[in-house]
Structures are given as C-alpha cells and as structure tokens.
Amino acid sequence: MIRLHNTLTRRLDDFTPLSSDKVTLYTCGPTVYDDLHVGNWAAYVYWDTLVRTLQIDGYTVDRVMNITDVGHLVSDADEGEDKLEKGARRDGKTAWEIAEYYTQHFLDGMKALNLIPPTHIAKATDYISQQISLLRALKQRGCTYQTSDGIYFDTSTFPRYADFAQLDLSAQKAGARVDANSEKRQPWDFALWKFTEKGKVRDMEWETPTDLLDTPPPPEDNKPVMGFPGWHLECSAIAMSLLGKTIDVHTGGIDHIPVHHTNEIAQSEAATGQRFANFWLHCNHLKINGGKISKSLGNGYTLDDLKQRGFSAMDLRMFILQGHYSNEGNFSFENLQAAHNRLQHWRDVACLRHQVHDRLHSDTENNDLRHDFSPSAAIGAVKEALNDNLETPRALAIVDKALTELDKKPSQKIYRAGLIEFLEFVDAALGLELLDSTPDIDDECKRLLVERRRARDNKNWVNSDELRDELLNEYGVVVKDTAHDTLWAYADEKPE
C-alpha cells in the first residue's frame, strides 16, 4: 500500500485510486519562455519517481502534463505582461517561436534526465476551445463577471475557496496575497480570460465569444473582442478533458498552493460540482547555497551550465533524489560533486555483472544469507521506502548498503543473475540508467586485459603498467587489482 502526504487532508493517507489498476495523474508543466534551472527540474524528478513507484506497484499511469505557452502573467494578480510575450521581445522572436524553442529545450532536458514521458503533453494553445467551454460553463452557473480588462471568477460564488490553502481571507488586506485591482469584487478574484489591450495586437490572441461577455462591444465597432486565457484556466480544462472531472493525483510546487491550485479547485469544482482531485502532492523549494534561485544573482543554473562544469544530467538526478520532495533542498556544487561520486560508485559495482558468473545455486538457496546479498530482500526494502511517501533518501541508503556489500565480496561469490535483477529494479525505480551507462567492454579491451594478466603472471610489471595506462587513456577503462581478481570499471569522466 502506498502512503502519500495529501495537501488536501494535511496528513499521510493510504492511496486508493478511482480505478483498481489505473491512476490518473496531472502534473503542472513549465511556462516555456526560458530554460529551466535546477530548482525547476527537481519537481519533475520527484514526480517521475511517483510515476515509477506507481508502475512498480502494478498501476498503469495515465499522466497529463501541460505546457504553458500562453496566459502566464508575470504576476499572480493577473497584472503585468504575459511571460511568453516578454520572452519574445527579449529574444527578438515571436511568442510562437519562443514557445516552440523552449518547449523543445524542455523535452530534451526530460530525455537527458531520463524522465518517463507523460501519456499526454498538452500545450495550452492547443486547448483554447476547451478553455472557452469551461469558461462558458462557469458563466452559466453565475460564477463570472466582466471588467475592463477581462472576465473574472467571482470567488464569493464558491464558499470553499479558502479551504484548500487554509486562507484567512477576512484577515487579509487587499494586495497582501495578490495586488489590488479596484474593479475586482474581491481582491482574490482571478482572471479567467484577459482582453487584449486596445490599440495593441498580441502574437497570441483569440476572438472572445460574445456569449461570454456581460457587456458586448457596441455594434458600430464591428470588431471582435480579442483576448487570451488566464494561466489557471488551462490546467483545469486540460486535466478534465483528458482525464475526467475527478482525477486521482495532482502535483505541483508549494508555491502553487495559495493561488494557482486554489484557483484550479475553485473553477473546476464550481463548474462540475465534483471534487477535482483526491490527492494533491506538493514539493518544496530548492535553494542555492542556502539562498533563493534568481537570474539576477546569476545562480539559475541550467543543465547546460552543469554540463560546462563537467556534470551530467544523471548527476543532478542523483542529487535531487538524495533529498525528500517535502523538504527544502540546498544545491551547491559541493553537494552535486558528492552525488556524482555516489553515482560513480554505483556504476563501478554495476560493471561487476560483466565480470562474474552465475553460481550453481541462487542466493535464496544459500545457507547463510546474513553474509550474502539477497536481491529480493534489497528490492523489497527499496520498494517499501518508496511506498512510504516516496522516501527516496532511505531508498538510496538501502541501495548504497547493498552495492557496498557486493563491492567487498570476492567476485566468485557474487551471484550475477541476482545482481542484474537488483540493478534492473533500481533503474526502474530511480531512473539512474546504471545498466545503460555501463555496457560490456569490447573485444579489444578484453584482449588487453588478458595480455596484462599474463604480464603480471610473468612479473613483467613494466608491460603490465603500460597495458593499464593504454586501457585508461585509449578506452576509458580503469583496472583494479584485488586480492582475488583483476576487475575493471569505467573511468570517471568528470574533470577535477
């Protein structure tokens, strides 16, 4: 049984999906106006772990992730410029070009981090009609009103508005949570549809259906009212159109709780009369050296920035998994180096599978399991940790212990099939690509290893050292002589 901390109930709840064998999951995706930094990527690694855990437990995961390519203003108060339009002006491109460019960057980053692709990746601009339909349903239920700059959700029509985030609206001054807007009926009312400013043309805009307007334009204008959807509207419309009115799990960051997710719940449940999501999971922030991540501070490190410093996406994935999603993380290059070293050790042990052979009996038939590696026991322990609210730090500690025990064993005592079984499970659960990153060496390397072994047997130490250096310098293979055998692993490619 999986237990997850549910923001809706503020407790650890046993997870039971609506269907016995399928989980519907919605993940808030990126706003594609710039490259993601390490703090952004942390959330996607956490929710990838959730997907992997559900799959290991036998569920099919029907997952939707949106791409926000329109409507996300620089302020949660529905004020300011659309981030895509701002990015377009910054880069000298259209908003459509910016969205396409950074969407591809995001998809490339997902691949580099070995994130399982969602069942549906939905661009907000591909779901305009669905957003308009949701807006129409809200208007028919008396939940909307019109101002000079758009159509807003009237939060007074949804009495439970403050419940999810446990907001004390009566104690809040106008502008304490969102900026003041004199045309709003309540300061926390939010935009469902924004009008294009008069005299301006946006890259991304659509005609506002006249039935959605409280005050249609004068007939003599003979011009449609152009506009675009608010940021919150897209998530509800996309989720419900692809997954249904009620979904199993909705994920996001803790910063989404008081505004974005609160607004999602209000508009969704006001439109359908049904609960929008049964479980809400939120990850905490990742800081940089104990401080905030900010471009102005020059610490919004991207995957490309890490690569330039010699770190891989898998190093970052290991670093992220070392922290629990509910805890505030702290990124530093010292911490990233430690994660890299840990991953390198795991890969070294993974290489053993190419150098050992199956014994005549399995670990389960061994008379002294206390001193042997049991893949089934290790797998069970990792699975138990992940089922306990995605306890990745504990899961990694279990893998550490198991692989360290194997690393200490004479190679002839390592059960190859058991090692492979364990590595396959770790890759499935944690996505660190241990098997893919450690293929067997080619025949030439094997020939050099045999030749070196002969040189050592003949006490030709000079030739032995020369062959060792050739393996390292030409093939990136490190040779380690133990009391029992000569073993190889791949050299650490990260520069010091």
Sheet with the most strands, sense and barrel status? 5 strands, parallel
What structural class do you assign from the helix and strand content?
alpha/beta
Number of helices: 14
CATH class of the largest domain: Alpha Beta
Instruction: Kindly estimate the percentage of residues that lie in beta strands according to DSSP.
Output: 15-25%
* First and last CA, distance: 44 Å
The gyration radius over C-alpha positions equals 27 Å
Secondary-structure element string: EEEHEHHEHEEEEEHEHEEHHEHHHHHHEE
How many domain regions?
A: 3
Tell me the number of strands: 16
Poorly predicted ranges: 365-371
What is the CATH superfamily label of the largest domain? HUPs
CATH architecture identity of the largest domain: 3-Layer(aba) Sandwich
Shape: elongated
Question: How would you describe the overall organization of this protein?
Answer:
The protein has three domains: 3-283, Rossmann fold (3-Layer(aba) Sandwich); 303-430, Isoleucyl-tRNA Synthetase, Domain 1, CATH 1.10.730; 443-490, no CATH class. It is 40% helix and 15% strand. The chain contains 14 helices and 16 strands. The strands form five sheets. A five-stranded parallel sheet has the order 5-4-3-11-12, with helices on both faces.
